[in-house]
Amino acid sequence: MNLHAENQDHFVLVSILIIMTGLMIGSFLNSCAFRIPRKISLLKLRSFCPACRSTIIWWQNLPVLSFLILRGRCHVCGSRIPLDYPLLEISTAIIYYYLFLKFGLSPDFLLYTIFLSALLVISVIDSYHKIIPNSLIVFLVASFITLNTLFQTHLWSDVIFNAGIPMTCMIILKYFTDKLFNKESLGMGDVKLCGAVGLFLGRELFFQTLFMASAMALLIVTLYNYKKENFDQKYIPLAPYLTMASFLTICWPFTILNLVEYVAK
Hints:
By secondary structure, this protein is mainly alpha-helical. It contains 10 helices and no strands.
């Protein structure tokens, strides 16, 4: 076997392991998204059906595969398993694999897998419960500090500004929009989440991310209104759009200034 073939076999093996890891972590993220807002321990209890509380045994807890085997229903009570569960597992695997293709097994790969994994959990919680738990913001900050201490992925001199400038801008935006609409337009959870996003992506790329997130949210609202479907405009969760935009920014890290310079050439 030649060296090229050996390298190709190694790449395929690592790719399979990355995808399987993404699926398994995606399953754990589902558990986090369900348990954290309900203040259920992630360690003490085995997985259980939310409807009948029956314990889920190992073969019923295989990422994606169990959903297909069980045909999307609980083995005991027959209640439907939300489609969100396999979708989150598949999304995690896709994100992990793409980050592997882009960064390889590097500190950046580890940094962004942790970052986007936490954002996926926050997105699900924000969508269903309209909250962003402080514990997940603390986890993001602690993870960043730990990884940056180990690998120096960001300059420490920039860290305070990377988090502080987005948070300051969002607080100012919150103040004026609250006054304009005479109601709370942004929660403090959104403000803190934006600070965490700035911490990982940097203040320049944060504004690209916020712009894309706002554009996607506006597009979704417009489409729902166009189809005249019921849409709760009292609260539009920001976290899912920030998560999608953060992933796109990591994939294509163009700042608005870079884009203007590119178009001008």
